[in-house]
Specification:
The protein is α+β, with helices and mostly antiparallel strands. 14% of the residues lie in helices and 12% in strands. The chain has two helices and four strands; from the N terminus they run αββαββ. The strands form two sheets. The chain has a two-stranded antiparallel sheet. The chain is elongated. The N and C termini lie far apart (44 Å).
Amino acid sequence: FAITYVYYINTYSSKRAQDANLQFDFQCSNYPHLKGILNDDYCDCPDGSDEPMTSACSHVLVGQKLFSCTATSTGDAIKLFPSRIRDGVVDCYDGSDEK
């Protein structure tokens, strides 16, 4: 019994990447035979490696804490889940999670 995952590059996303001058042929970290578009808000890679700065792959990355900064309210060091990056809410003192 084998499960096969089929991933493709969304054509709308590809057009957005060209318009925004994004990295179009990003090689997925754990899937070297697959490519995606880096930070285009569309989860192309099954490991989520093409979306480190967006919440597009938060369903894949939810267990990983990727972003560290200083909290706005306490001044303590915090780690944010990918879903809290660029979500419109400033969590970091310097606003770096929304840049």
